[in-house]
Design goal:
27% of the residues lie in helices and 25% in strands. It is α/β, with parallel strands linked by helices and 421 residues long. It is globular. The mean pLDDT is 94.
Length: 421
Amino acid sequence: MSEQSFVIIDDDLVAADIQRRLLEKQGHKVEVSLDASNAIEFVSRVKPDILLVDIMMPNVDGLEVVRRLRLVPELRGLKIIVVSSKSYQADRDRALAVGADGMIVKPVAPATFAEEVLALASNNIDITYWGLRGTIPVPGRRTLRYGGNTTCVSLEMPRGNFFIFDAGSGIRELSRHVMAQRGGTLSAKIFISHPHWDHLNALPYFVPLYIAGNQFEILGPSQGSLTMREMVQAQMDGTYAPIPLRHFGAEIRYRNLSEEEVQVGDASVRTLLLAHPGNCLGYRVTLNGRSFCFVTDSELYVKDTPGYDPAYIEKLTEFVRGADVLLTDVMYSDAQHKSRVNWGHSGVTEIVGVADAAGVKELQLMQHDPDQTDDDIDAKLAEARAALEALGSPTTVTAPAELSRRRLTSSGTLIDLGSLE
C-alpha cells in the first residue's frame, strides 16, 4: 500500500502515541482521539483510510464504536482494525462480527506493526513457504538455498483468516515465527493433505497448540475407519512421542474431509482426491476472485504407459483451472521419474502439461526429492521452463525457497516479499 491516512481512538495516551509514531515513521498520516464518545463525528470529519480502535474505553467501548461506524453509509469503505490487550478468541470473533477487518493484540510489535496493520486492511493473500521437501528433512550444505524442511505452507488472508497446509518439519519454522511475532497468539485452520509422516509428524512441535485461548481446526482425509483425530492421537500415544494429545492447551476441533467444498469466512475451500497411496487431498482456496491450489502428493503417469489415466488428468486439470498459483508435487526430473514409477509422485513434463492446459498463471514446484541438491532443483526448474516455452505457454514457473513469502494482491498480481530470515 502507498501512504495511508489513519485515525487512532484509544484512551491510553502512551499506547496511542506508540502506534502513531510507528505509523508516521513509515510515512503515513495519523490523527489521534482519546475520546470514543465522539468517534463518529471525528472519523466522519477526518475521513481516514484506516481506523485503529481499542476495545476497553470509558463511556463507549471500541466494539460499539465499530458497530456504529458500520451503520454510516459514507464510511462504508473505511478499514477498521481493533488494537487491544484483550487476546481472547471471543473478543476477536465479536470484533469481526460487528464489522472489524482484523484485530491486533497489544503490546504491538514495533518491527512489524505497520506491516501487520496494512496486511489486515488490504485484500491481499500472503503465501509463506515454511517447508517444501518430500519424504524426510534434509538439512545441510546441499540444501541451503531452497531449504531442507518437509511440507508446510501458510496463507494469511483478510479478516484474520489463517490457513496452514500440512504439518511437516517446516511447521517448526512457522511455530518460531508465531511465537516471536504474535506472542504465540493464533487461531487457524490446519489442512492436512494425508497422514504420511513428512506431512503430519511435526504437528506436536507446533507450540501455539499448547497455548490456552488459541483455536484450531485440523482438517484432512480419514483413512478408512481411522479419523483425523485418531491419526493425530496415534503418533502422540507415548510410544512415538513424549507428549500426549491431552496436553494441547488450545481449543482444537477435528474434521474429516473427502471431495467437497467448505466455506471459511469469505474463502471457499474445495478438495480433490489425488493419485497417491491412501487417501490424499489437494486443496483449492478461492477468495474474491483469486485462487491458490496446494496439490501434494500426486502421481501423473507418462502418456501411453501403464497407470496413465486420462480421466484423472482431466479431473485435476479442471480442479486447478485458472488458478493464480498452483503449488504442486514435482518431485522428479523426467529422467528420475522413469525409474520411480508407482512411487506416488510426478515428473516435470506431465505437471507442466496440466498447468498449461488449465491456464494456471504460476506453477510453483515443491515436494522435492530428498536426494536433490539446490543445483538439482535449479536444473528441474530449468527443465520446467523449457517445457513451458516449447508449448508456447503463458504460464510462468518458479521454485519457492523455504522461509520466503509471496503476496497475491487484490488484482491477482504476485509480488515477491523476499525472505523472512
